[in-house]
Amino acid sequence: METALQTLVNGVVPLGTLRFANANARAAALIGDYAPRPGMITYLIAEDRYEGRMADGSWQPLSPAPWQPLTLKTGFSVHSGSPGYRVVNGSVQLRGRIKRTNGGQFSTGTDWVFATLPADVRPATFSYWITPVEMGAGIYYGRTQLDSDTGELMIQTPPGATSTSNGLKWSGLDGLSYSL
Fold this sequence. Notes:
Blueprint: H1 2-12, E1 17-20, H2 23-29, E2 41-44, E3 49-53, E4 59-61, E5 68-69, E6 76-88, E7 91-100, E8 111-116, E9 127-135, E10 138-146, E11 152-156, E12 168-172, E13 177-179
Parallel strand pairs: 1-2
Antiparallel strand pairs: 2-3, 3-4, 5-6, 6-7, 7-12, 7-13, 8-11, 9-10, 9-12, 10-11
């Protein structure tokens, strides 16, 4: 009877969602005959996240991870929108707007490195995007770059933004995303 029930349980459990206190508890529980198999889905309570077991043996998030604050380098601060990043199904999303701490302008010809992303959320290749910026009284464009080796996020200002009255005042990150 016990063997028959164990066979039934072993057949049904991989098809349901398993709940664990955290990723460490999951790793401790799913060993030996109960080792994880591709297609398993787990819910991690501490992380508040569903994850699926992939054929390559990795666990991949199936639900958005919480927003993590972007740690800004000295000389930069939040303009609005809580600058941050999160992982959603193998992609990283960025949000928020940043400005210089002293209220000064970003001048043309300078690469402004404003943050560094952790190694686990860096893309495989160098990435860049056209991003919104405010210059003078208008909204224009700039270029935000992400170095895949160092994780440095950098703003390059558009041509003509050289004076203190027309220089770049802020740069936005909303809508920027890339695959891991």
